[in-house]
Amino acid sequence: MKRNQIISIVGVALLFIACCKEQEKDYTQYVDPFIGTGGHGHTFPGAIVPNGMIQPSPDTRINEWDACSGYYYADSTINGFSHTHLSGTGCCDYGDVLLMPIVGYANVAFQGKESQQTNYASAFSHENEKAEPGYYSVMLDDYGVRAELSATKRGAIHRYTFPESDNAGFILDLDYSLQHQRNENLQLRVISDTEIVGSKMTVYWAFEQKINFYAKFSKPFSSYEVVETSVVENGVELPQAKVIVRFSTEENEQVFVKVGVSAVDVEGAKNNVLSEIPDWNFDKVRSDAKAAWNNFLQKIDITTSDETQKTIFYTAMYHTAVAPNVFSDADGRYLGMDHSIRQTDPNKPIYTIFSLWDTFRAFHPLYTIIDPDLNNDFILSLLSKYNEGGLLPLWELAGNYTATMIGYNAVPVIVDAFMKGNRNFDVQKAYEACLKSSNYDSTNITTPVKVRNALVPKSKYYKNKLGYVPCNLEHESVAKGLEYAYADWCISQFAKELGDSILYDRYKDLGQGYRYYFDKRVGFMRGLDDKGNWREPFNPIASNHREDDYCEGVAWQWTWFVPHDVQGLVDLMGGKEAFIKKLDTLFTMDSRLEGELVSADISGLIGMYAHGNEPSHHIAHLYNYVGQPYKTQELVDSILYSQYSANVDGLSGNEDCGQMSAWYIMNALGIYQVAPGNPIYSIGRPLFDNATIHLSNGNKFIVKVENATKENKYIQSVLLNGEPLNSPFISHQDIMNGAILQFAMGSKPSQWGIVE
């Protein structure tokens, strides 16, 4: 064999080995699922795969705001392991199908609605607790049982290591739920000595949340007791349904449990788990879950010597793949918004959990970059819900309209994808759905009347009739009006692309509706009544949660929500100098809030900028529009380091189904989209030496940073594919074409990015 042939073969072999090593890189080592389980992050540490239907996780409390995910790090007892959980929400639901191993006597009597613990709860220590993507374990001190959890897309597997006992077993609690949701139609059956099935409907945040389950045990029961009764508390009858199973165990004997859930029926739940977990190989499920997470996390590869930032970044990536959740069963059946059983392609699942008021801002824009196909699938789910229920969701949960939050934020999600060329959906149907969202039209909407009135508020009528939402006729009038203006601008862009000139002109005008709310005398967006009078008295730092003119914020935060027309806002404020002066004040003023009931959501304050809640998330980038990009750079730097940490309280507000983390990811890469619907990204402060986004089209978007230190937060120069980039903006197409964005950083502000 010739020498150059040998060299060539060796080269190919080395390349193959290098590729294998790259594929074997373990990104999960940098994920800490406990981040966000303290403070008010409202995350959970249990086992889940990306976008999984089922989320087995420990529940440590039942009541109050910090029970939203079931787990709160400061607690010291575990009630059991339920199979449905919300990640980072400000409202509570789920906590279905609680399973708890027991040894000896266990009291299943109702503890009372004020109690945070069940009577059979166990103490635990964080020292004996472990969480990683797709896996969770803990020692239950009261019973001497080691609990381990893992999951597939639609099935959970538990492994319990018992002590020696002639009286071991499990409690399966069907009536248990977080914040004591109203249970209806409880059905619980032991169908063999290894199988339990059941179903129920709960009335809570989701007005009709239906769930069915199937549980299969590896060890036959020697006996069981079904407890079906009811208790009366404060004149309310509360149905109870639990089963206690018993068996003997040897020292360190392992007992496995497989659980499937379905919104359709018990057979669907059974098929969901048995089709994905056919045997009792816990370690394989755990290994497959880890591989699934690595497959997702490797979409973005970062290089930095700061191990803490790696943990924050990849945990943020992890949090962006918890929701939305798969909602259709393995056979493609699912519960439609009209609560009829429907069928989809099993390979194209329907999703649930759309926290759109939060996620339209950074979560969905992030997915248009890292996984546009999955984002398209999310849009297909939204359009399915429109077809079934008659309206695009505001905040959809388990096949229910919740009518939570304001605006119509499915619109920017759809329009942003469309404007970026991601159009693998029925465009005309999407256009129709967006138009209906903007109108005061409740026809053919399938939902309880109570929900319908909130889902289609009269504020839409006032917006279209008067041009604005009167503060004396609707709560949160200013916030609603500003969000309506932005969403209507999005529709105008949709109409323009489709060649609908009439509706383009109409919605372009509606997009200017923000102007009604700006009072030049005080320099703020404020409430205007139906007679054209400003609300009095006016206090820009006052908050009365959900009862004033703003939504989870104050005038200081909401005045800046004109993402689609920053120049128009600049003009309203009297030009660049006045705009900059007011923006400077926002970040430097006292953080004191006043009011009858200050919203707990106003958190993560830097001055009056509130990073812990979404209305503020674009504001730091506004300096790029007025010739002071260095201030965007220093503020993004401040937010990245002050509002995110690798601690349990490492999030400054609710995680909000991935939005808080998506903000971090985008900004750590050096970009942020101020106005989804306009495919332009504002440049901020890149955090890492190198970052590579592996695009689904086969291209790579690479961010390289010279002098990447904590002190060097200011951009000195930028090259895009080797050519100087002098504007602090980059297009979506630039990214998707594949590009190298190269930054030179320094410790002092420069003239870079100042464009007159």
Task: Detail the poorly predicted runs.
Answer: 6-22
CATH topology of the domain at 33-296: Beta-galactosidase, Chain A, domain 5
| Helix content bin | 25-40%
Number of strands: 38
Distance between the ends: 65 Å
User: Main sheet, how many strands, which sense, barrel?
Assistant: 8 strands, antiparallel
- Helix tally equals 19
What class would the helix/strand composition place it in?
alpha+beta
- Which CATH architecture of the domain at 33-296 is right? Distorted Sandwich
Strand content: 15-25%
* Name of the top-level CATH class of the domain at 33-296: Mainly Beta
Coarse morphology: globular
User: Reading side by side through the largest sheet, how are the strands ordered?
Assistant: 6-7-8-9-16-13-12-11
Helices and strands in order:
Layout: H1 3-23, E1 57-59, E2 77-78, E3 80-82, E4 98-103, E5 122-123, E6 129-132, E7 135-140, E8 145-151, E9 155-162, E10 165-173, E11 182-192, E12 195-203, E13 209-217, E14 223-233, E15 236-249, E16 253-262, H2 266-276, H3 282-297, E17 300-303, H4 307-319, E18 325-326, E19 333-335, E20 341-343, E21 351-352, E22 354-355, H5 356-359, H6 363-370, H7 372-389, E23 395-397, E24 400-401, H8 410-419, H9 427-438, H10 449-455, H11 459-466, H12 477-497, H13 501-510, E25 518-519, E26 524-525, E27 542-544, H14 555-558, H15 566-572, H16 576-588, E28 594-597, E29 605-606, E30 609-610, H17 629-642, H18 659-668, E31 671-672, E32 680-683, E33 690-694, E34 700-706, E35 714-720, E36 723-724, E37 729-731, H19 732-736, E38 739-746
Parallel strand pairs: 27-28, 34-38
Antiparallel strand pairs: 1-3, 2-5, 4-10, 6-7, 7-8, 8-9, 9-16, 10-15, 11-12, 12-13, 13-16, 14-15, 17-33, 18-21, 19-20, 22-23, 23-24, 25-26, 29-30, 31-32, 32-37, 33-34, 35-36, 35-38
Helix pairs in contact: 4-18, 6-7, 7-8, 8-9, 8-12, 9-12, 12-13
